[in-house]
Amino acid sequence: MNATLLQTPLSPFQRATTSADHKLLSLLRDRKTEEAWNTYTNSTHLPNPTCLSRLVSQLSYQNTLSSLTRAQSIVTRLRNERQLHRLDANCLGLLAVAASKAGHTLYAASLLRSMLRSGYLPHVKAWTAVVARLASSPDGDGPAEALRLFRSVTRRLRRLPDPGMAAASQPDTAAVNAALNACANLGDAAAFLQVLDEMPQFNVEPDALSYNTMMKLCVRVGRKDLLVFVLERVLQLGIPLCVTTLQSLVSAYVEFGDLETAEKLVQAMREQRRDICRVLRDLYAPNTRTYTTLMKGYMNAGRVSDTVRMLEAMRRQDDKASHPDHVSYTTVVSALVKIGSMERARQVLAEMTRIGVPANLITYNVLLKGYCQQLQIDKARELLKEMVDDAGIQPDVVSYNILIDGCILVDDSAGALSFFNEMRARGIAPTKISYTTLMKAFAYSGQPKLAHRVFSEMDNDPRVKVDLIAWNMLVEGYCRLGFVEEAKKVIQKMKESGLHPDVGTYGSLANGIALARKPGEALLLWNEVKERCEVGKQEGKCDSSVPPLKPDEGLLDTLADICVRAAFFRKALEIVACMEENGIPPNKTKFTRIYVEMHSRMFTSKHASRARQDRRVERKRAAEAFKFWLGLPNSYYDGSEWRLEPLEGYGTASDSV
């Protein structure tokens, strides 16, 4: 029988669907991505997996904000319809890379984890790009997230019966170096060594960059003594030595503040000496980067004149490879901005333009920060306009974060909001710092509800993760107005989200309690703080999910102040004992003044009933003990009497819990 007779004829809908898919695939093959997107959006059915994967790939490859948004919308639609399996690993990997480049690193990491859960293994280039971005992220969670992602991928690879099944996903040296960079930025030496030890499992060997990163780790953990051994190890392993390694060495000594050693290294390179580390066999002359690293050391040490002199010396070098570049000039600009010399900094910028060394975005951001620190927001606005219109340099999220923070310094919350909205209008995605800085603007200007609205928007933004800093800023906003109940509700939600208050949270709440004059709340807060401090003392002896707390002077002094004013002397003594235990000297002069001004007539009434006098016994003991601690006359000294005339208008309170 003819096979064609056994085939089920296609329905009109199926024929239309097949035709539409053919049309879409043809557009994609011709790289007509815009027309393909329009066809997809106008289609009444979901295209086949080949079309969807190609469309997501091409949109991701365009690397524009609009194309990325389109690609993400396809993924969101498929996820909602439980059809994510229609996309192949290649297109999802490309989307992760595009999202990472656009600054949406959390989305990219989430996408890769989703792939792993679905059984996909992303290409090593894709997951390495995301790990590298996270590892270098200024966000404190970035390096930790990078390490978690690296371990998720490598753990999955180890489970495979045959590594050849996923050869394209196996980590290479670049992938491992990204993980090592994350460890270095975290200052986690144990994790660094673990990653280094695992390299042979994947047939990967460390290179010069691996050991350059190890030098960075030495700086993070304060092991200057290990730097020379790292260099010796590089030479022992026969790793081709590059000038970057020596530059990393100079940079490390600069970070340690050991400018003398850094200078000796640079001088040895200039003299082409062979005895660096006693085994250095190749010759290296210092270049622009080496000199600039030393300049940064001078700048960090506040040696502005040496920074400027180094620039002059670089100009006079015969070797063009040692002439100053935009980084060298930016270092000088930074040094001048640091001392508030904005006029000289602008002269350096003008000179850069004159000699044909164009300033970059970092140069302008340094100048923007300088004007903001000098409270010259109008000049910062002018510079922003000059940067865009004259230099053709577009601001980034760092530029706007600087400007928003500058508005806070001049108490201009409206200006901060204006910059925030302008940033988003330019298609620049806000970061954690953007949100928390805007929250700070509203919190400090007495507008906690607006701060809460910004917090809610941050919470709904999938590109960022609400952290303790954001929660604390919200608490601070309410406490600055004495809205204790609202602040307590925020803290409760913080705990429910899995975060625990830190000393900053409690410090803000204590200040709010003092402002609201609610001493009873101070007792409750002290009990919680005391419990958290006890966790630290019992570390290793009890299984507690709550981390220990290390109280600071601001928190304990505020609580003690509230308790002394409210005549909670027993609690005040507990708090000052905690201060002394933590090496914080209590302000006895202040507490003595408060006691004399507010409580000098306590327990002096001769007309109180016997029952009332009996109830006062415990409180009087606490008061006498507190006077003893202050060094004032008290019943401990031969029963001597102490009387002072009270100030009018002050009452007393019981020392109850």
UniProtKB/TrEMBL annotation:
PPR repeats (start-end): 172-206, 207-241, 287-321, 325-359, 360-395, 396-430, 467-501, 552-586
Domain At1g68980-like TPR repeats: residue ranges: 17-136
Superkingdom assignment: Eukaryota
Chain segments annotated as coiled-coil in the UniProt record: none
Pfam families assigned to the protein according to its UniProt record, in alphabetical order: PPR, PPR_1, PPR_2, TPR_At1g68980
Record's keyword terms, sorted: Repeat
InterPro entries in UniProt: At1g68980-like_TPR, PPR_rpt, TPR-like_helical_dom_sf
Family according to the record: Belongs to the PPR family. P subfamily.
Protein's recorded name: At1g68980-like TPR repeats domain-containing protein
Phylogenetic classification of the source organism: Eukaryota, Viridiplantae, Streptophyta, Embryophyta, Tracheophyta
